[in-house]
Design goal:
507 residues, alpha/beta, Cytochrome Bc1 Complex, Chain C, two-stranded antiparallel ribbon, 8 strands, 51% helix, elongated
């Protein structure tokens, strides 16, 4: 499994690097797959409401009303129909890429199992929603979907009636058709909203909207596709005849060829087995997490910054229990904590300038990597530096492997997340022998722990607490975030060397 993830991650990284050449890094679509999916759902919803105005929810009127929209009012309703179709396909594509990307990045196990586990049924509900949409057009493709679906339902032993004969004998009534319209227009969408809410319920500070430029570009792309290749229907249903030539939407209707070639039993077995495998992946094998964050109320001021910064909502502020003047104290939900250390970097008491002659204690920190242990490691690395242009590099274990940068003049410290770095650590480093500091981490918009690199950047620029002190010479501090790909490792080496030269005094 590890080999599969490593191979897949290399492929994903290569694709992302290609996209970074065509997009500003913060607008890379791969970094906004979740919010793009929600955006596509909005397009589907708005276009669906519009075309429903013209749609007739009965057997006789469904096909003619869709044809009217497609041909007589192509300039509006026809475009809306095409947008509805292509945005639905785009949503499935973004969901699948999102799913594979999370798997290859190993962001589906351990504490994150819940989002993955609830995401699988969400995907299938989206597919079922699309299938009912194709059904409503009531053309030959819809007839094929109806027949194949009837075969699947008839195979289930608990359902005694032979549903397939209703479609072969053209016995579908308006009541049944109205039921399908209700499922597509209300029943399934409501269930989808509930599942989506469940899917993201353990994640805090969710951005449901992609960057504006990316949203506009995505919409214009779908609009152009709708104008160049508008969605059209197959021929109308022919009673008593099965359709012969069809143009399948493979994003939604991929299960039906299995029914044709292998039969409904195999189709159920393959799709059910694949679904079960996906849902069980977080435990094949399970991931061992580091111990979650621990609170030390003797060092906690109750400011609540750790709760604001936690990417997973694992920290909540509760009434104070130790009698101090502060009204609140942080409480950690161990089942949600990923042990990223971002909360430790948020705590003002994590400053290495405190307790210089004693063990440094923080209000909240990782028991397996305390701020005192971090200070001791930094102190040891500083003592070993030699030469000119001495730099210490703080990196993230999910980004570039900073160990490749080690040299007599360069010391490296790897963190579970760049967000664990207290801004005051830079002040400490520059006061104790380093000429400069380079902060690395995951690429912009692609933090393994969601906000680590963003919070770090905002702390260093003074936009977020705790802030880097203004007395720190910013010319001696730089940031560069890259992945662990070979090309970006080389680029980091060049940036580091240029930074070191800028620190050396000119003759």
């Amino acid at each position: 499994m590890d080999a599969l993830r490593r191979t897949g991650n290399k492929v994903i990284l290569s694709l992302e690097l290609m996209l970074n050449r065509g997009f500003p890094e913060r607008l890379n679509p791969f970094y906004h797959l979740g919010s793009l999916t929600f955006f596509f759902f909005w397009i589907v919803l708005i276009s669906g409401i519009y075309i429903f105005i013209f749609f007739e929810t009965n057997v006789a009127g469904a096909y003619p009303s869709v044809e009217y929209m497609t041909h007589q009012q192509w300039w509006m309703a026809g475009i809306m129909r095409s947008l509805h179709r292509y945005a639905s396909d785009a949503a499935v594509i973004s969901i699948f890429i999102h799913m594979f990307r999370e798997f290859f990045r190993d962001r589906y196990r351990g504490v994150r199992w819940f989002s993955w586990f609830t995401g699988v049924p969400t995907l299938w509900l989206v597919v079922i929603l699309g299938i009912t949409g194709y059904w409503l057009v009531w053309d030959q493709l819809a007839q094929y979907v109806a027949l194949a679906t009837a075969e699947l339902v008839d195979w289930i032993p608990l359902i005694p009636s032979a549903m397939v004969f209703n479609f072969l004998d053209n016995q579908i009534t308006d009541r049944f058709f109205t039921l399908m319209a209700f499922l597509h227009l209300l029943g399934l969408p409501v269930a989808l909203v509930f599942l989506l809410w469940t899917h993201v319920s353990r994640i805090s500070q969710i951005d449901f909207n992609p960057p504006r430029a990316l949203a506009i570009g995505s919409f214009l792309t779908l609009l152009a596709l709708s104008l160049v290749k508008p969605a059209v229907s197959h021929a109308p249903v022919q009673a008593g005849h099965s359709p012969v030539i069809l143009h399948l939407d493979w994003f939604y209707l991929n299960v039906y060829p299995l029914v044709d070639t292998l039969g409904p039993g195999w189709a159920w077995g393959i799709s059910g087995g694949f679904t079960l495998l996906l849902m069980m992946l977080p435990w094949l094998p399970s991931k061992k997490e580091n111990h979650p964050a621990r609170v030390d109320l003797t060092q906690c001021s109750g400011c609540g910054q750790c709760a604001l910064d936690c990417p997973y909502g694992s920290i909540s502020m509760q009434p104070r229990t130790d009698g101090k003047k502060a009204k609140f104290e942080p409480t950690v939900n161990d089942t949600l904590c990923t042990a990223c250390g971002i909360c430790s970097g948020s705590c003002v008491s994590s400053s290495p300038l405190r307790m210089s002659n004693a063990t440094l204690k923080s209000g909240i920190e990782m028991p397996w990597f305390t701020v005192d242990a971090l200070r001791q490691e930094v102190k040891h690395k500083l003592a070993a530096l030699s030469g000119t242009g001495r730099v210490i590099v703080f990196g993230c274990e999910h980004g570039l492997d900073v160990n490749s940068l080690k040299a007599p003049e360069v010391a490296v410290v790897s963190l579970p997340c760049s967000g664990m770095l207290p801004p005051s650590m830079l002040d400490y480093v520059l006061k104790n022998g380093a000429d400069g500091v380079l902060v690395s981490g995951c690429r912009d918009g692609d933090c393994y722990h969601r906000f680590g690199n963003t919070w770090t950047e905002q702390r260093l620029t003074g936009e977020r607490e705790p802030k880097l002190l203004t007395r720190v010479d910013r010319t001696r501090v730089t940031e560069f975030r890259v992945s662990n790909s070979r090309g970006e490792r080389d680029e980091m080496g060049k940036r580091l060397e240029a930074f070191r030269r800028s620190l050396q005094p000119t003759a």
